[in-house]
From TrEMBL:
Keyword Transmembrane helix: no
Protein name (Swiss-Prot/TrEMBL): Ribonuclease H
Species this chain originates from: Lacibacter sediminis
PANTHER family registered for this protein in UniProt: RIBONUCLEASE H1
UniProt subcellular location: Cytoplasm
SUPFAM superfamilies cross-referenced by the UniProt entry: L9 N-domain-like, Ribonuclease H-like
Length: 211
């Protein structure tokens, strides 16, 4: 009798998402697939439950150590929410940002690549973009998550406090910044802007996966 315990492989993001009972089948779904999300489980029941949930609940989480503070007090993220993130390419020197609906992992907007931007500017623009999206679609109670404390503070202050130098090369970025600042000045919103707690919840689901 074999002592090898069965494994169940959940593929949230792959060529054909689903639950697989051997590694080779799982590998075929994720190999070469950009942004693949998958994990193995030791029971069918655990795998089926995990598949119903967002992959960020199960992967990319840091292991706790004795020196790590108890993070249970932060609770869990709100499923009915929008999550935004930005990425800066160190090779191309450009920035882009996007927003997703957390519950369905559906991308609802994307901007870029934009030359000569910064990550914090991208986060700031992404939050304002999400606020505008919510206003347009009457989603006034939809919370918005970002993992950038700087950007959240800038939005609440209605001012992008970037150190980026304004020049001919960066003018297109500052045009977007000024438009976002004007939107904040001219519009009211009820949406809560919340911090995505990466240490407790794992990687931001809107992350571009370039770390």
């Amino acid at each position: 009798m074999s002592n090898i315990k069965p494994k169940y492989y959940v593929v949230w993001k792959g060529k054909e998402p689903g639950i697989y009972t051997n590694w080779n089948d799982c590998k075929q779904q994720v190999e070469g697939f950009t942004g693949a999300a998958y994990k193995s489980f030791t029971s069918k029941e655990e795998a089926e439950q995990a598949y119903k949930e967002h992959f960020a609940r199960h992967i990319y989480k840091k292991e706790k150590t004795e020196s790590t503070k108890d993070l249970s007090a932060v609770g869990t993220p709100i499923h009915e929410s929008i999550i935004v993130d930005a990425a800066w390419n160190s090779v191309q020197k450009d920035m882009e940002y996007q927003g997703i609906l957390y519950k369905t992992n559906t991308r609802i907007f994307h901007m870029g690549p934009l030359a000569n931007g910064t990550n914090n500017i991208g986060e700031f623009l992404a939050i304002v973009h999400a606020l505008g999206y919510c206003k347009k679609h009457n989603m006034h109670s939809m919370p918005i998550y970002s993992d950038s404390r700087n950007a959240i503070g800038w939005v609440k202050a209605k001012k992008c406090k970037t150190n980026l130098e304004q020049s001919a090369k960066t003018q297109h970025i500052f045009n977007l910044i000024h438009r976002a600042e004007n939107w904040l000045q001219e519009n009211n919103y009820r949406n809560k802007i919340l911090k995505w707690e990466t240490e407790a919840w794992g990687e931001n689901p809107a992350d571009f996966g370039r770390k």
